[in-house]
Amino acid sequence: MVNDVAAINIDVAVVNADAGGSDIVELGNGCVCCSNRDDLAETIALLSANNTYEHILVETSGVAEPRGIATLFTRKNLFGRSLGDFARLSALVSVVDAAFFLSEWRAQQERKPCDTAASGAARPVFELLVEQIECADVIVLNQCDRVDAAGLGEAEAIVRGLNERAELLRTEQGQIASELLLERVRFDAAATLGAARWIKILNTMPATGAGGLVVKSGVAASTSVTVPRHTDGFGIVSWVFQSRRPFLQAKFEALLAQRVPGLLRAKGFFWLAERPDEMGFVSVAGGVVRQDFPGYWWAALIENGKARREKLTEALEKLWAEPHGDRRQELVFIGIGLEVECLRGVLEECLEKT
After folding, report:
1. Where residue 345 sits, what CATH number does that domain have?
2. I need a labelling partner for 14 at 20 to 30 A (CA). Which of 34, 203, 210, 293 fits?
């Protein structure tokens, strides 16, 4: 199955030329993770029902989001069925052009951050590349012959810094043994969708106390806690900032507009003094910044009579701290050679003074 967002599917012609008469199914003029989702699901279900094929390989367009593909197999429809009832998802495979990825990463370090959510600009390629790496069971680092040894090591370290779980394969011209992809099931809904390093770190972080302190192994750390990570000597560092005081909006947005040297990824929840009821969520990939307010803090819902405290989940109860409930700053930063103390200082300057 070959997907292309264009009305004319060029890729299917190339695959047909190399397939030697194999059956090829074309899905064109749209992406299978969004506009062509139903077509993809129906086609896979139909092919599976025929009991003719042992394996179905789906080549998506380069702009596909892997989470959208995965949820077809895991999320139940109104009838209580999912695509996983017809076919087993074996693996999500992301192919990364080593030379292009490394070039984009280096370019991001020179680029002024842009808030694409606010401007409504087209989604930058680097941000999509990062998400395709974070949600993958297998990462094929391709075009390795076009990068020197040092650059290849750097590219691999960055990929590992984003997703430690995925199997990483080095290739040239996309050549890979079929047995490395077939008959080996790697997809696991919880593990694959939670493979991104920022998700793993947030899921293992202790909750901050009311005073904005994090206590870990009996040691109190002012406002934040570091989780050092180093990969292949390239200094991949992961660091978490936590606080129970709100950010001042102007200062926080000014910080997001600055370039943080070495920053590869940042993601997490934030709380603004000027918007106390709304839960903020920020995502940074290289120089691309997205911020949104996808919902409300549970504390605000309870205060406004729209929810009850006794309905809180166990996870929310662990996060709860009076007098602000679940309102908090909880941001993960991943980068190469991050100046943590400097970053800690500028973040603390964004907080509302007590």
Report:
1. 3.30.1220.10
2. 34
**When comparing pLDDT for 296 and 58, which is higher?**
296
Strands 288-296, 114-115: parallel, antiparallel or unpaired by DSSP? parallel
The percentage of the chain sitting over the pLDDT mark of 70, rounded to a whole number, equals 78
**E strand intervals along the chain:** 2-3, 26-27, 93-97, 114-115, 138-142, 167-170, 213-216, 219-222, 224-227, 236-243, 263-272, 275-285, 288-296, 329-336
Examine the pLDDT at 12 and tell me if it is beyond 60. Answer: no
Last residue of a domain, one of 89, 122, 155: 89
218 within domain boundaries: yes
Residues 117, 132: Cα–Cα separation, whole Å? 19
- Structure confidence at residue 282 (pLDDT): 95
Q: Which domain holds residue 292?
A: 197-350
Confirm whether pTM is higher than 0.90.
Answer: no
Tokens of 235: 């200094």
Indicate whether 203 and 328 sit together in one domain. yes
